[in-house]
Structure of Glycerol-3-phosphate dehydrogenase [NAD(P)+]:
Amino acid sequence: MIGVVGAGAFGTALAVTWARAGSDVVLWGRNTEAMAAAQSLRALPCLPGVTLPDKIHATADPGHLDDCATLVLAVPTQFLPDVLTTLPAFSASHIVAACKGVDLRSLQGPTTTIAQAYPQAVTAILSGPSFATDIAAGLPTALSLGCENDAVGASLQAALSTPTIRLYRTQDVTGVELGGALKNVIAIACGAAIGAGLGDSARAALMTRGMAEIMRLAAAMGARRDTLMGLSGLGDLALTCASPASRNFALGMALGRGEPLPDATTEGVATADAALRLATERDLDLPVTQAVSGLVAGRLTVKDAMTDLLTRDLKTE
């Protein structure tokens, strides 16, 4: 049995696809009334038009997670420590993070946060180019599964792959985490460029130089280059920098247009500041990330940010 902690769009979409593939799934959310309604109506507002299969048990009672050998935590990274402290001890032997970001308080990735709370469990990270609506619609999706224990990783890969979700495994947990986290920052930059009318050429430049920053910081933290060139790095960057369906891209577009920011959790905002702190500790230069941090904090306009980037000293590539 698979337990999914977090009944937002992504967690619900994963639960739906695993249930369609024949797995029994417990879907946990903190709102008692909302989860009771989901159980009876077989639907959640976060995924309009999607019916919850009968194999999903929607609940706000964490006790129902006790029978799950594998737990998937699909909650925003900045909320993960609080969620872990409010839930009772899990008995699951495998806990998979399905969230993208770097905790702003600890500068840790999700698997480290989980491992500190549940040292008895083997942790893993699930990341890659994916939108909840695509997964819930049964559209083909490929994701990276990072797990240091390769035997457990292979077991999880087999258990969590479905006819529509193909998982590729790696032992490079750091690469999977940082690729999925840092691409959100670059997506904000690309959205701002498009929103400000700077064109697709500017977006392509930001994606390319942003990828260089991702690889620079991730390599300094021990990640492998081939991981970052895979699904959880380049693949996710390509998706989120090109679609308004990405929350990070949409927030960037609003910044570029001078519009009110969307009222939604946007992981790239906190990750930009966390990435800069990690870079400072390692004496690394991340100009695109620096610009995004200034934009979301209101210290820079899009025009100021682009001027700063374009007037930097000329360099070799």
The first helix runs from residue 9 to 20.
